[in-house]
Structures are given as structure tokens and as C-alpha cells.
């Protein structure tokens, strides 16, 4: 009785509260997880536009070096693009900030922040996150860190330009190169704030999943999306503090004269006073976050894919428990493979062989996921809507990108292609494009839940096919120029006659990149116009079994009016014999004699 009374009071409070909602408490400093998810998504989209725009600029520079472009002069100014020719310093800055924005601000914050916030309370049957205020603070810290990162673009000496991995000494000595000055300091400040945001969010997600599940929602009845977000949050809590410590030590090296990462260094013949530090220590600290980071980016996308593929194949996901075990195995292994980024840093060859072993081991749970997706699709009644196409696209890039990971994970083979375009091709396919596909799949699938309207399906098809063609058009040829030895991060290769023959390939890659980048405008138009003018959605547009589709379309703080639904079955009862519909929601009680397949 007390629970019902509590529910009733809660509803009453909300009703009272609803009248007092001002614009600021509803849209800006909101503590409602659904609004915070939208804030993350739209901030992430804006950061994504900046990140993709930068990649289009530096691709033009690589394809047509020394050429004069009016747009360079317009966007970069006379200092960084005199007469419309890009300077080498600003090229490095564009590469650095592009990497930083895409990895952290788009693929980490926008993907996890949007979908963990939107789905965790709705899919586990909770009124909201464990702490709405912490949730709000985590978004605003993310917002502040985004603003600081964008501000660093306007510093007089130029933004950070030590690569997104900010290795010392370029990042540790303010006088090293133009981009080592104030721009680098702002980069470090931005990342420190970003990590705080990420940790607050992650702790909230973990507590919510453990404590606030509705009646009947055991851990083995959670949708795979929730498992993915939950384990992702745990990886974040374990690994992000290590990057924070590295950033703080770097700030101390830069500003307070310590030498954690610096040893005997000469600049222009002058001997600096640093001694005893080691840049390799920084690499260890950076990659101890940097490799789990790949899975912080990938696992939410894989979770979303599990949900979308099961729903649109009208079949139970194949190997539910194996999928959970593979997520946990990936999380564990991801923390003991970071050394494969450092095979050529002078690491002990025996240690290299240990990291090779653990790296190749992580291919097993990844393959389990890939095979389970393919088996779920096999002989399914496929509904090929845009969300489904992006999910299938993810399975494709996850496999093609993952195969080259086997080459890079082997220290003997890695030495030959390290720091070439082969590496760029590998991690963009397996991490960048796969995670973006997961994000797009999630947006197409849950847009009706977020905004109460449908996206335009035909524009979605155009968006998918052009994006998929251009993504492979950009990253597939990179494998070949990488094997031919073309180094990455060089702003022109004209000094090496050896590479003259590869210039045509770079032009082709750039053309695909420009077309693919411009066609994201189709998605942006579809997204922003559908928020206001899209077709109104029905309660459960995809005929899905999970709890979020039982909540009313009109958003109320607390998700459900009255009682929270109870759960009686696992989330993938599609096409189940003995039922009239081809989907049985989790809230439908079991019939006598009906057994659960996933046990």
C-alpha cells in the first residue's frame, strides 16, 4: 500500500511542479533525463559539424598541397592561410582538434550522454536517474568543456597542435611550436572539465542501473543496450581518472617546472633544466585511458545495434547471454591491451609480446558479437528502415575495421605500418565510422521517443547510402597508401618523390570525404525540420517489446503516469509461438507453461 501511496504523492507533486516549470527549468537547467539527453545530442551534433568541417579542410590541403583556396583564407584568416594557402602549423592544429572533438565530444559524450540518459531510466522502468542534479551538472560541465575547446581555436598563437594524443615534449614545452602555447593549456583545461563531466555521468548511470530497476527487471532481463551503457560507464570510471592525472602532471610540467615527462632537452642549442622524466610514461598513462576509450565509444553503439537489429529482424537476439559475456570480456580485456599503441616506443620486446597476446585475445568476444548479429539477421523478417541499415552498416565496418586490427595488434607486423595511413584507415573504420553508424541508428530509432515525431524515411535512405559509400571510399584506399608507406599527419608529401604516385589516391579520398561531409546536411535538415514538422508518431512505431515504448508519448517528468509497469519476461520476445502478435512486450505476464528461451 505504501508504495502505491508514494506513487500517488509523487504524481501529485509532479502535477503541482508542472505548473511552475519556467523556460529555464524546463529547457536549460533541466533535471529530467529526457531533456538532458536532447541537450547532449544537440551539443554533440554542433561539435560534430565543427569536427567534420575541419577534416574537410585538411583533406583539401592533402589532396591539393600549395593550392590557394578562398575558403582557407575566409575560415583561417591571413595569419594561418596567407593568400589562401594553408600553413603547416594550422594543418597540425586542425588534425589535433578534429581528433579531440570527434573522439571525446562527439563519440564519447554525445553517444553515451544522449542514449544512456534517454534509455537507462525508460528501459529499466525508473522515474529518472538516481540523481537528477548530478545529471544536470554533468551535462553543463560537458557544455563548458566544449566551449573552452572551441575557444582554444581563437588563441593568437594557434590551437593545440601536438596531435589528439598530445605527446610530450610538444605538449609539455610551451615554447616548442606555436601550437604549444595558450592553445595547449586551454586543451588541457577543457579535457580536465570534460573528464569530470564524464565521471559524474558514469557514476549516475551505474547507480541507476543497480538500484532503480522496476519490479521483475532482473539483470538477465535487461535489454542489451542497458548492459552496454552500464559496462561502458564502469570502464569510464576505471580509466578516465588516469587521463586526468596525466593532464594534471602535464599542466605541472608546463607551468610549475616539474619534469614528469621531460628529460634532457635542448631547444635551439639551449639546455633546459629538466631531467629524469620520461615521455614514455605519458604514453602509458594516455593509452591506459586511450584504449578502453575505443570501447567506451564502441560498446554503446553495439548495444544500440543489438536492440535495432532484434526489433527489425522480428527475431530474438541470438545468444543473449553470450552477448552479455562478450561485453564484460571486452571491458576487462580493454584495460590490458594499451601497450599495442607503443610497440615502437622502445618497449621491451617481451612486454610487446604480452600485449600482442592480450590484443589478439580481444578479437574473440568481438567476433562473438559480429557472428551473433549475423545469426540474428539470418532468415529474419527484415524491416530495412534507416535505423536498420545503419546497424547493418555498423556490423560491416566493425568486421572490416576489426580485421586490420589483427595486423596492427601484432608487434612484428605493426612496426612496418605504424604511423602510416594504414592506422588511420583501421581506427576510423572500427571506431569512428562504426560508432557514428551506431549513433545514427539510435537517432533514427528513438527520435519518435525523444521528439514525438518521425524522421523522413526517404531522406534517411539517401543519408545512409551516400554516407556508407563515401565512408568506404575514404577509408578503404587509405589501407593501400598506408602499406605503400605514406606517413600520417604530414601536411604535404611533395618533398618525397617516392610518394608522387600516391597523390591521385589522395585526391580520390578527398573527393569522397567532401561529398560525404556535404551530404550530412541532408541528415541535419531531416533532424531539425522533423522536430517541428515531422509526422506525429504512434505509441510504439517499431512494434518493439521494451519498456520505453509503454511510456506516454507526451513527456512527463517521472516517465509514467500512475504506477511503473512491472516486467515479466526478457526484452526479445519477437515472433514467439502461441501469441497473436509477432512481439510480446516485457509487461505481458507469462502464460502457464510458457518458458523463457534465453535461460
TrEMBL record:
- Could you mention a single GO BP entry for this protein? respiratory electron transport chain
Segments traversing the membrane: 40-58, 90-120, 132-155, 186-212, 224-252, 294-310, 322-344, 350-375, 387-409, 421-447, 459-485, 505-528
User: What InterPro entries does the database record attribute to this sequence?
Assistant: Cyt_c_oxase-like_su1_dom, Cyt_c_oxase-like_su1_sf, Cyt_C_Oxase_1, Cyt_c_Oxase_su1_BS
- SUPFAM superfamilies the UniProt entry points to: Cytochrome c oxidase subunit I-like
**Where mainly located?**
membrane
Q: Name one GO cellular component term.
A: membrane
Task: Provide the protein's localization.
Answer: Membrane
- Tell me which EC number(s) this protein carries: 1.9.3.1
UniProt keyword Membrane, yes or no: yes
Judged by the first EC level, this protein's enzyme class is oxidoreductase
GO MF annotation: an example: heme binding
Annotated membrane topology: Multi-pass membrane protein
Q: Which UniProt keywords apply?
A: Electron transport, Heme, Iron, Membrane, Metal-binding, Oxidoreductase, Respiratory chain, Transmembrane, Transmembrane helix, Transport
Every Cytochrome oxidase subunit I profile domain range: 23-550
Q: Which family does it belong to?
A: Belongs to the heme-copper respiratory oxidase family.
- Its name, as the record gives it, is Alternative cytochrome c oxidase subunit 1
Amino acid at each position: 500500500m505504501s508504495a502505491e501511496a508514494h506513487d500517488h504523492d509523487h504524481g501529485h507533486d509532479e502535477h503541482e511542479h508542472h505548473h511552475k516549470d519556467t523556460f529555464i527549468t524546463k529547457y536549460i537547467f533541466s533535471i529530467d533525463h529526457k531533456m538532458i539527453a536532447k541537450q547532449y545530442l544537440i551539443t554533440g551534433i554542433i561539435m560534430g559539424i565543427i569536427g567534420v568541417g575541419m577534416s574537410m579542410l585538411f583533406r583539401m590541403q592533402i589532396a591539393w598541397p600549395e593550392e590557394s583556396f578562398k575558403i582557407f583564407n575566409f575560415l583561417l584568416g591571413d595569419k594561418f592561410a596567407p593568400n589562401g594557402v594553408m600553413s603547416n602549423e594550422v594543418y597540425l592544429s586542425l588534425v589535433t582538434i578534429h581528433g579531440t572533438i570527434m573522439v571525446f565530444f562527439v563519440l564519447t559524450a554525445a553517444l553515451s550522454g544522449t542514449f544512456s540518459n534517454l534509455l537507462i531510466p525508460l528501459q529499466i522502468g525508473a522515474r529518472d536517474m538516481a540523481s537528477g542534479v548530478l545529471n544536470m551538472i554533468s551535462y553543463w560541465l560537458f557544455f563548458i568543456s566544449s566551449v573552452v575547446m572551441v575557444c582554444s581555436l581563437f588563441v593568437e598563437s594557434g590551437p593545440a597542435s601536438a596531435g589528439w594524443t598530445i605527446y610530450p615534449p610538444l605538449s609539455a614545452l610551451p615554447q616548442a611550436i606555436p601550437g604549444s602555447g595558450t592553445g595547449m593549456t586551454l586543451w588541457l583545461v577543457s579535457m580536465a572539465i570534460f573528464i569530470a563531466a564524464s565521471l559524474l555521468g558514469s557514476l549516475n548511470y551505474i547507480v541507476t542501473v543497480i538500484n532503480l530497476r522496476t519490479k521483475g527487471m532482473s539483470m538477465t532481463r535487461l535489454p542489451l543496450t542497458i548492459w552496454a551503457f552500464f559496462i561502458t560507464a564502469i570502464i569510464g570510471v576505471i580509466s578516465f581518472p588516469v587521463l586526468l592525472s596525466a593532464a594534471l602532471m602535464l599542466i605541472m610540467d608546463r607551468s610549475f617546472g616539474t619534469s614528469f615527462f621531460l628529460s634532457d632537452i635542448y631547444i635551439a642549442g639551449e639546455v633546459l633544466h629538466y631531467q629524469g622524466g620520461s615521455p614514455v610514461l605519458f604514453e602509458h598513462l594516455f593509452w591506459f585511458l586511450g584504449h578502453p576509450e575505443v570501447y567506451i565509444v564502441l560498446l554503446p553503439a553495439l548495444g544500440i545495434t543489438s536492440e535495432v537489429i532484434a526489433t527489425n529482424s522480428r527475431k530474438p537476439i541470438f545468444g543473449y547471454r553470450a552477448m552479455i559475456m562478450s561485453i564484460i570480456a571486452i571491458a576487462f580485456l580493454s584495460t590490458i591491451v594499451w601497450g599495442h599503441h607503443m610497440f615502437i616506443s622502445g618497449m621491451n620486446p617481451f612486454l610487446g609480446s604480452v600485449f600482442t597476446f592480450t590484443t589478439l585475445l580481444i578479437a574473440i568476444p568481438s567476433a562473438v558479437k559480429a557472428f551473433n548479429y549475423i545469426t540474428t539477421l539470418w532468415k529474419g523478417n527484415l524491416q530495412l528502415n534507416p535505423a536498420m541499415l545503419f546497424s547493418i552498416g555498423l556490423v560491416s565496418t566493425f568486421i572490416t575495421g576489426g580485421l586490420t586490427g589483427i595486423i596492427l595488434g601484432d608487434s612484428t607486423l605493426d612496426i612496418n605500418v605504424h604511423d602510416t595511413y594504414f592506422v588511420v584507415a583501421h581506427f576510423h573504420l572500427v571506431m569512428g565510422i562504426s560508432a557514428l553508424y551506431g549513433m545514427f541508428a539510435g537517432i533514427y530509432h528513438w527520435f519518435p521517443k525523444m521528439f514525438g515525431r518521425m524522421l523522413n524515411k526517404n531522406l534517411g535512405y539517401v543519408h545512409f547510402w551516400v554516407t556508407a559509400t563515401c565512408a568506404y571510399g575514404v577509408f578503404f584506399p587509405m589501407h593501400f597508401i598506408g602499406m605503400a608507406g605514406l606517413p600520417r599527419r604530414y601536411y604535404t608529401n611533395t618533398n618525397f618523390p617516392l610518394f608522387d604516385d600516391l597523390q591521385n589516391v589522395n585526391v580520390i579520398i578527398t573527393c569522397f570525404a567532401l561529398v560525404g561531409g556535404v551530404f550530412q546536411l541532408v541528415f541535419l535538415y531531416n533532424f531539425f525540420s522533423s522536430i517541428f514538422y515531422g509526422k506525429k508518431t504512434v505509441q510504439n512505431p517499431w512494434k518493439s517489446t521494451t519498456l520505453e515504448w509503454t511510456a506516454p508519448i507526451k513527456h512527463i517528468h517521472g516517465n509514467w503516469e500512475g504506477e511503473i509497469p512491472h516486467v515479466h519476461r526478457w526484452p526479445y520476445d519477437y515472433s514467439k509461438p502461441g501469441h497473436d502478435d509477432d512481439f510480446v512486450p516485457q509487461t505481458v505476464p507469462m502464460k502457464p507453461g510458457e518458458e523463457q528461451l534465453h535461460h
